[in-house]
C-alpha cells in the first residue's frame, strides 16, 4: 500500500468545536497532520479530503481510482443514509475501510446501521482520531 486517501464526510470540518465530548478536541487539520506523519513513517503517501456534500464525496472516491491503493473513509452521517456512497465504493474496486470517531453502535438507534459497512473490507469505530490510524494499519496489512 503506497497511497491512501483519507476521506472525511460531512461536519468533520467542525472537529474540535462540535461536541468534543463525543468527537474529541482535535481539529481536522491536527488529525490530518498526524495521519500524514504516520503515513510517512510507514512509507505511505496520505492525502486527506473533506467534503460536506454527498456528490463531492462520490467524486473523491472516483478520483481515488487514479492514484490510491486504498481509502480510509469516515462517511459520518451519510453512513446511515447514502446508497450513492455505497454504490461508489462498490464501483471503484479498491479497498475501503469505514471509520468513525465515536462508537456508532452505542449511540442513538438510527446510527446503529451502516449502509456503507457491508461494501467495505472492514469497519472501525469508537477510538477517536485513532480509528483512522487503525484503518491505515489495516490497509497496509493487506499489501
Molecular structure report:
The protein is an alpha/beta fold. 36% of the residues lie in helices and 18% in strands. It contains 5 helices and 5 strands, in the order βααβαβαββα. The protein has helices spanning 20-23, 28-41, 54-64, 83-92, 130-142; strands spanning 3-8, 45-50, 70-74, 96-100, 122-125. The protein has a 5-stranded parallel beta sheet with strand order 2-1-3-4-5, with helices on both faces. Strand 3 (70-74), helix 4 and strand 4 (96-100) form a beta-alpha-beta unit. Helix 3 packs parallel to helix 4. The chain is globular. The termini are close together.
Label this structure with key terms.
alpha/beta; 143 residues; 5 strands; globular; 5-stranded parallel β-sheet
Helix content: 25-40%
Poorly predicted runs: none
Strand order of the largest sheet: 2-1-3-4-5
Distance between the termini: 5 Å
Shape: globular
Mean pLDDT, rounded to whole units?
A: 93
Strand proportion, as a percent range, falls in 15-25%
**Tally of separate helices:** 5
Q: What's the main sheet like? A: 5 strands, parallel
Order of helices and strands: EHHEHEHEEH
**What would you report as the Rg, rounded to the nearest angstrom?**
14 Å
Overall number of strands: 5
Return the structural class.
alpha/beta
Characterize this entry briefly.
The protein is of the alpha/beta class and 143 residues long.
Topology:
Elements lengths: L2 E6 L11 H4 L4 H14 L3 E6 L3 H11 L5 E5 L8 H10 L3 E5 L21 E4 L4 H13 L1
Parallel strand pairs: 1-2, 1-3, 3-4, 4-5
Helix pairs in contact: 3-4
Amino acid at each position: 500500500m503506497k497511497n491512501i486517501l483519507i476521506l472525511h464526510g460531512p461536519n468533520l470540518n467542525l472537529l474540535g468545536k462540535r461536541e468534543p465530548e463525543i468527537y474529541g478536541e482535535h481539529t481536522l487539520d491536527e488529525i490530518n497532520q498526524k495521519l500524514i506523519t504516520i503515513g510517512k513513517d510507514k512509507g505511505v503517501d496520505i492525502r486527506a479530503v473533506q467534503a460536506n456534500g454527498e456528490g463531492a464525496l462520490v467524486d473523491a472516491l472516483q478520483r481515488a481510482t487514479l492514484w490510491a491503493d486504498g481509502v480510509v473513509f469516515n462517511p459520518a452521517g451519510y453512513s446511515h443514509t447514502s446508497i450513492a456512497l455505497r454504490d461508489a465504493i462498490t464501483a471503484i474496486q479498491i479497498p475501503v475501510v469505514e471509520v468513525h470517531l465515536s462508537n456508532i453502535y452505542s449511540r442513538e438507534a438510527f446510527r446503529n446501521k451502516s449502509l456503507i459497512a457491508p461494501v467495505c473490507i472492514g469497519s472501525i469505530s469508537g477510538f477517536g482520531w485513532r480509528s483512522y490510524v487503525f484503518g491505515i494499519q489495516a490497509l497496509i496489512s493487506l499489501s
